[in-house]
Amino acid sequence: MKLISLAKAHGDSVAIFHGQTEYTYQQLLHHSAVVASSILGNANDLQESRVAYLVPAGFDYVTVQWGIWRAGGVAVPLSLSATEPELEYTITDSDAQRVITNTELSTKLAPLCQRLGIPLTVVDEISDGDPQPLPMIQSDRRAMILYTSGTTNKPKGVVSTHASVESQIEALVTAWQWQDSDVIPLFLPLHHIHGIINVLSCALWSGATVDTFSHFDADAILDQVAKNRYSVFMAVPTIYVKLIQLLQTTPDQQRQQIVQGFAEMRLMVSGSAALPASVHHEWTNLTGQALLERYGMTEIGMALSNPHTGERRPGAVGQPLPNVKIQLKSEAGEIIQTEGTAGEIQVQGPCVFLEYWNKPEATADSFDDGWFRTGDIAVIESGYFRIMGRQSVDIIKSGGYKLSALEIESVLLDHESIEQCAVVGVADDTWGEAVAVACVLQPDSELDLKELKTWCRTCMSTYKIPKQLKIVEQLPRNAMGKIQKPAVTRMFSEDQG
Ligand code: MLC
Ligand code: AMP
Questions:
Q1: For residue 214, with 0-12 CB atoms within 10 Å meaning exposed, 13-18 middle and 19 or more buried, which class applies?
Q2: Which CATH number belongs to the domain containing residue 7 in this structure?
Q3: What does the pLDDT look like over 30-63, one tens digit per residue?
């Protein structure tokens, strides 16, 4: 595994910083080998058995992730914001043979693992010692399963191999000129590719330092920015919007120090959702930094990026990254050869995932003659790709999270007052899109937004909970009886005037 062999060259450098504690690459190497030995037990190689883990960002997260890889297992990171039904789904769908967590979270997971009959390892209870010899891992073996929503009800497990992960990392390390002197804050969730690959793995591949936060703690992060601690910063557009809002109310002297801290960084990146050109300009006016916007997806890693050196064009996502082949295909199935004509982005290259876990049909459907179909529409303008939207109205991007309208609808239909519903994403200045639901109620029922939100908290992550509710007599349908979602979206936007 290249990530492990590269780490050996940086032994005494600080890899992870958490709170007041720093951990070197040597410590990461040793403790990940100890974790690997512990989960191997008497086996020589986990032979791609799935190991799910719920561990907050920090040293333990990396020792567990590397430990699973070094033992020959497939890493399945779980979401810290997931509810019990969501955790159960991921653990059972991936057919995890073990779950790893820390002492604090073990009370949440122990009853679930007991019910499912899956062994639970508590990482901070693994005793130190001499690790056993670890297996050689070929790069074509499965490495990781990340769960991502799509146009189906439940999230699908995206399987990457060690080779595809390495290719995704290498493309970014090269294109964005990662250096061992870089220091980056990590506050994005670590069950998605943005946090795992772009921030954590690129930094550790390069011998750089990652300052880990358990969540997006704006005050703590800005405190460090003001001390000029970071050279690289990566976030979703919602975070830049929130930072702009926060800086507007920050006292002058403090604001100047923060702005200076941002101004002196060597690279600031935005991605996971469209960065409005207005936000790009506001950020430049505030800090002098031209945000580098890039485009990616769980199934392919990062595909398109504005240049590190050269024009970073607001509203555009640049050109293909190294080793990534892109074509645009029209609705009529023709490959688009000219600028100015929109088509679906299709991707080929070593960065592309292996399969959807246990879903051969979904895997086959997502490829068109060997090209991965992203479902995103783009156009090329003066040499730069611009994302125009998505093919499916059932995919919502909110705060950088990809959500399936169908998944949320199917949960809402379990509510005793809801007879029918339609979930849509409505434009939102902070979140990009916000989840909204129009409901037809059961006879003689009542429902308000507050009650709906309280009910939702037991079964879905916060970011999936509808932020707007409309009670309707009937849902707009077409001649075939299918709900017309664009009409539902219009109902909400008309309300906003
Ligand atoms: C939370 N809230 C929302 C919301 N999420 N409201 C509307 N829409 C949403 N999406 C509400 C909560 O209910 C709560 O309300 C309040 O906001 C604060 O919640 P929070 O969870 O504490 O928010 P915050 O910590 O500020 O989180 C915002 C965020 C987070 C932007 C930091 O959403 C985040 O980490 N997003 C990144 C996701 C990501 O990494 N995506 C990458 C996927 S990979 P109340 O009323 O309770 O106060 C990918 C590929 C690629 O996309 O290209 O990278
Ligand atoms: P996910 O499935 O969570 O990996 O999300 C991938 C999706 O995020 C893509 O298919 C796009 O729809 C969206 N996305 C990522 N980056 C951008 C961007 N810069 N602009 C617009 N959409 C983006």
A1: middle
A2: 3.40.50.980
A3: 999 999 999 999 999 999 999 999 999 999 999 9
